[in-house]
Amino acid sequence: MSELTGWGTEVVIAVCPQCDWRYIVPEGKMPLRCPHCFAADLEPVTEGMEQLPYLRPPELAAPFTATKTVADERIEKFADGIPFAPRDLNPEALRSRVQPLYLPMWLVDGDVAATWEAEVGFNYNVVSHQERYSDGSGWATREVEETRIRWEPRVGQLERHYDNIVAPALEQHAAMEQALGVYALDNTQPYAADILERALVRLPDRAPEAAWADAVPAFQAAAGEECRQAAGADHIRQFRWSPTYTGQHWTLLLLPLYATYYLDDEGQPRPVLINGQSGRVYGVRRASMKRAQHTAMIILVVAAVLFFLSLVAGVAGLAVPPLIVIAGIGGMLALCVGLGAIIPIVRAWQFNRKPVETL
Ligand SMILES: [Zn+2]
């Protein structure tokens, strides 16, 4: 339990029985709906805490620079323009369920000593000539300039300190980053307990030891880029090195987002996520096939009524011949309206085939 100290207030761990996400919650705040899947209420975790990868409070938090007003506007845009939207997919419902949330991410600093080798590339321009024939003016010579790269091998040694290398604190880090975009890390603030009053905090499911393997390529990329700059080159490839890492220092950082949801045709919650910094929205926008089918049924009923009236006019036409013409027109109209019933279904179906987009 000692690991749960340092949060600045009394906290408990809560887990979602549906998606298994774990959160830090101020004591007395439950019950709460899981802001990741919205399919279940969170349950307090009372045992097995020593098996959780990391329970200490974060050092830093990126602030919610996208205000609630911005989030509201983005929600409006998200709900707009969906043909036959499910009844629950409306700005009011989405806005009323917004839950601010923080996701964890690791930053690691460290010293690296290494020998390295690579090929560095320098751009140079080549002028060549192209002969072209056209009917009007015959043969003409055109000067063409193209950029090529000259590659040279390089070796060297480096001894460097690198700051703020990003490493995932969540298994779903890559998926979340794809959904929400990359966060800017230039105005982070020290963690303070009042953060917990405003938002739920997701616990890391990866400790530094597990996240280290993902940080290594980022160290290598940073080193490769530096070697390119040191060589004054435009490109670098085949960068190989034998690094020795020392003095790693890990910082846990929180990233802000808003989460909300709507219920689809089947009554299942569909989460909608909004980046708390950029306002970027991620969520599945789906038309309701039920509503499309309902509209199609109404159109079919109208067509059937028209057809029936035309039939009556047709029978009456046996006695009053001009009515035959009206019956004919009515019959055609009924056919057209009836065929039109397919339109709502096709529109909803086409919309639902579109890939998930970020707004
Ligand atoms: Zn959940």
Q: What's the layout of helices and strands?
A:
Layout: E1 11-15, E2 22-26, E3 43-44, E4 60-61, H1 68-79, H2 91-96, E5 99-134, E6 138-168, H3 173-180, E7 189-190, H4 195-198, E8 200-202, H5 208-230, E9 235-263, E10 269-275, E11 281-283, H6 289-317, H7 322-340, H8 342-353
Parallel strand pairs: 4-9, 5-8
Antiparallel strand pairs: 1-2, 1-3, 2-8, 4-7, 5-6, 5-9, 9-10, 10-11
Helix pairs in contact: 6-7, 6-8
Bound molecules: zinc ion.
Zinc ion binds at residues 16, 18-19, 21, 34, 36-37, 39-40.
What general form does the structure show?
flat
Q: Report the bound ligands by name, code or SMILES.
A: zinc ion
Strand content: 25-35%
H/E series: EEEEHHEEHEHEHEEEHHH
> Taking Cα atoms only, what radius of gyration do you get, to the nearest Å?
31 Å
Largest sheet: 11 strands, mixed
Q: Pick out the low-confidence regions.
A: none
Counted by DSSP, the helix tally is 8
Helical coverage, percent range: 25-40%
Class inferred from helices and paired strands: alpha+beta
Quantity of strands, as a count:
11
Q: Quick check: average pLDDT?
A: 92
Instruction: Tell me the domain tally.
Output: 3
Instruction: Give the CA-CA distance, first to last residue.
Output: 42 Å
